[in-house]
From TrEMBL:
Lineage: Bacteria, Pseudomonadati, Myxococcota, Myxococcia, Myxococcales
The protein, known as: Uncharacterized protein
Domain of life, per lineage: Bacteria
Length: 260
């Protein structure tokens, strides 16, 4: 926890510096890189606020700050008629969903890239992102099922749990969702532990992922929205405190001057 608290201090300073650096006249690549880094630091602050301070509302608010900055970047790219960032940049959206801020999550999802950008993402990353975008908005079976089938069609064992969770959400099948999600948590844990041992793993970017599975929390919020959530079980990387309702109202603060 002491290390996470120290990283939060570093990220707090980085946020102030990055927000001063953002220039609407900068190039597309510079802005994408800067706002992406800004979102990482907001997530570090969010996770530390949850785990060090035991403050879920501060956790949710900082997740929303990251998502709102990403939304503004996407809006700016569209206004400039620039290429959008690849849809694999999912963390800002996952944060908004994990916070239960559905209006913000829908806006981010609807502004996001839908095309596969092979120079910027793997096919599996794109298919996974497109499934999640469809689940958030519009969330209807006719839109989600083709995305499920596209991910399933890749034949990757690593994606079977996501496919099962998505189908269970559409079917309102609480038991199937729970079983698939429990296995997904185990797979995620194994991957995280492997990455934690690599010297090449970036400390700041990895820190929030080491403690909290943002995608997992987002899946659990989707299960709440589908009215199939269970609060009887506790999942590693998805602490109960992070599943409480967001009662604080995000006021749109701590944002860069990009887009409306």
């Amino acid at each position: 926890m002491a290390k996470l608290a120290a990283l939060r201090e570093d990220s707090g300073r980085a946020i102030l510096q990055l927000m001063r650096q953002v220039d609407p006249t900068a190039s597309r690549d510079v802005l994408v890189r800067t706002v992406d880094e800004l979102c990482v630091h907001f997530h570090v602050v969010a996770v530390a606020t949850l785990l060090v301070d035991g403050n879920p509302q501060g956790f949710f608010l900082n997740l929303c700050r990251a998502a709102e900055n990403w939304r503004r970047l996407l809006t700016h790219c569209r206004l400039k008629q620039w290429a959008l960032p690849a849809s694999r940049h999912m963390d800002p959206l996952l944060g908004a969903v994990a916070a239960g801020h559905w209006n913000l999550a829908r806006q981010v999802a609807e502004l996001s890239e839908t095309r596969w950008l092979p120079d910027e993402e793997y096919r599996s990353e794109h298919a996974r992102a497109q499934l999640f975008l469809a689940l958030v908005s519009p969330g209807t079976r006719d839109v989600v099922i083709p995305r499920v089938e596209a991910l399933e069609g890749l034949g990757l064992e690593t994606e079977t749990d996501r496919v099962a969770c998505a189908r269970a959400l559409l079917d309102g099948d609480a038991d199937t969702f729970s079983e698939a999600f429990k296995h997904a948590v185990l797979v995620h844990g194994e991957d995280i532990e492997k990455r934690a041992k690599l010297f090449t793993t970036p400390v700041t970017r990895f820190a929030p992922k080491r403690a909290i599975w943002l995608e997992g929390l987002a899946w659990l919020r989707l299960s709440e929205r589908a009215d199939i959530a269970s609060f009887d079980e506790h999942f590693q990387y998805c602490p109960p405190l992070a599943r409480t309702p967001m009662t604080s109202q995000y006021a749109g603060d701590w944002v860069v001057s990009l887009g409306p």
